[in-house]
Design goal:
Structural class: alpha+beta
Helix content: 10-25%
Strand order of the largest sheet: 1-2-10-9
Number of helices: 4
Distance between the termini: 32 Å
Shape: elongated
Number of strands: 10
Order of helices and strands: EEHEHEEEEEEEHH
Radius of gyration: 22 Å
CATH superfamily of the largest domain: DNA-directed RNA polymerase, insert domain
Number of domains: 2
CATH class of the largest domain: Mainly Beta
Largest sheet: 4 strands, antiparallel
């Protein structure tokens, strides 16, 4: 049987294209699905509004903040459920504080993601130009927001991918996987994390199967 192989056809910061040869289509599709749903990223998940005199409800502000992509380092942070702090408030290992204190003086002010102040120098919005709210003169918005790792299967704000597609190659033995990210993770980081997750699932499944004493059941 011919061994499977992977060839990188394109590798940019937010886009990667891989050609799988002699690899089961189910395996390639599993990587695609995991890259969407089970590769964690940071997103704002809890917002404490300290002052909001704008026309936008607190819930709407929090929703917009959650959809701002944040640069994520998977080696520096852990999922809240796996953190040894055992605190609902979290710690520096499992959450990042971002704050804002913005006020319009005598002119209308457009508040953007660039106005967010992060306690972590590396965890910042991928763009400083994402609009959050428009403040009329004398209106103010002040809050504390907490970002944590989560999965796309929990909420779309944690999805690292903007596109993840499997297509046919030139030969029947080929499958082309294209992954594009929103920038929270690079495309290569996303693929590597997805493959590691899939391999972990396969190993666990193999352990479960080996632990079954099938001979006694026959």
């Amino acid at each position: 049987m011919t061994s499977a192989s992977i060839e990188i056809l394109e590798n940019q910061n937010e886009r990667i294209v891989l050609k799988f040869t002699n690899a089961p289509r189910q395996y390639v599709n599993a990587i695609r699905r995991i890259s969407i749903n089970e590769v964690p990223t940071l997103a704002i998940d809890d917002v404490v509004i300290l002052e909001n005199s704008s026309v936008m409800h607190d819930e709407a502000v929090a929703h917009r903040l959650g959809l701002i992509p944040l640069r994520t380092d998977l080696h520096r942070f852990v999922l809240p459920a796996n953190c040894d702090c055992n605190s609902t408030l979290g710690c520096s290992k499992c959450r990042v504080l971002l704050s804002m204190d913005s006020e319009a003086s005598d002119k209308t002010k457009v508040v953007t993601s660039g106005d967010l102040i992060s306690e972590d120098e590396l965890v910042k919005p991928l763009s400083t130009e994402i609009p959050i709210i428009v403040l009329a003169p004398a209106q103010k918005l002040k809050f504390e927001a907490y970002a944590r790792l989560g999965f796309g299967k929990e909420h779309a704000k944690w999805q690292p991918t903007s596109a993840s597609v499997v297509t046919d190659g030139k030969d029947e033995s080929e499958s082309i996987l294209t992954v594009e990210t929103n920038g929270a993770l690079t495309a290569q980081e996303t693929i590597q994390a997805a493959i590691e997750k899939l391999d972990s699932k396969i190993r666990k499944f193999d352990e479960v199967v080996r632990s079954l004493d099938i001979s006694k059941r026959l």
